[in-house]
Amino acid sequence: MFRVLVAEDELWIRDALTEMVEKLAPQFHAAGEAGNGEEAWSFIQEQWPSIVITDIMMPHRDGLWLSEQIHTLNLPIVTIIVSGYDNFHYAKQAMRYGITEYLLKPVDEEELHGALRRSMKRLESMSDFHEGVIRIQKFVEQLPEMDQQTLLQESQSLVAYILKLKATAPGKRTGLLAILSAKLNELFQAFIPQHAYAPLTDESEQGVRGYFSGLMDAWLLLYPQQADPNVHSSIKRVCEYIDTHYYENFTLARLAEMSYMSVSHFSMLFKKTTGQTCLNYINQIRIHRAKKLLQEPDLKIYEIADMVGYSSMPYFNRIFKQLVMITPAEYRRRMGL
Length: 337
Hints:
The protein is an alpha/beta fold. It has helices at 11-22, 37-47, 63-72, 88-96, 109-124, 127-142, 148-163, 170-191, 205-222, 230-244, 252-258, 263-274, 278-293, 301-307, 313-324, 328-334, and strands spanning 2-7, 28-34, 51-55, 78-83, 101-104. It has 3 domains: 2-125, 3-Layer(aba) Sandwich (Rossmann fold), CATH 3.40.50.2300; 128-222, no CATH class; 230-334, Arc Repressor Mutant, subunit A (Orthogonal Bundle). It contains 16 helices and 5 strands. This is Response regulator.
């Protein structure tokens, strides 16, 4: 199954695109939605989808900016551009970022399905890189729990895996090294505020091994003795806020700001502290409340969706069914309402 992110600021178009993607299940699954480029970028760093369908014109960073971030880090993601502007200028910019799928609004369902199927072939060539990204994410998330021996073994194994890509895929190797370096530095800064960001400057094999060995030594020296004790309490405060303000329009950027962290720091530490992503946590709180409201026969389902923070009925239905395994209407019927 290929996980797809739909980034579009117009809600009705976003819903339509998501429904088009879901019609190709089980090969494709709409794993998430975003209303602007910043939200989409945060989702990518937290969930690592295989395909991103993005509008060009969006607030808070547009689709071209998002495409550039994906291209710059050489991420194993296929980007499909959607635009309401029949302008070759945008197409030329998109081509610079390796994008070959450019669809005009209103998007034809068959055209989108064709673009998704063609994306499968490109994704096959990215499988080793995608595995590398997943391995990096797993390593960084588990790092605070590792003992010294395990940490050194796992870090050396991960670096060796990336270095093997040198001969056949130097671009992927460089991208993975950049991701690993950024993730580790962000983790260090989150747990150890005095840590100074140390970029990787020497990509020779000796330089790479020495660089990451130095980072591991710094971690073992400073963590947990000098780790910030306020980190977990900050995440707890955010959870308490979500628990009581679940109906609000949350963004990762806003919640991260409440914790005085960057989005990537916050996403990583939230999952580390709670055992789940921030998006999953929010959805679970909302659906739990929705199940209670569905027991009130005077309330319409669309009213309940709005009351728990979903302005889109199709999105509410999808999330509810994903977590409860049945639709809100079926849930009501089974409750005898």
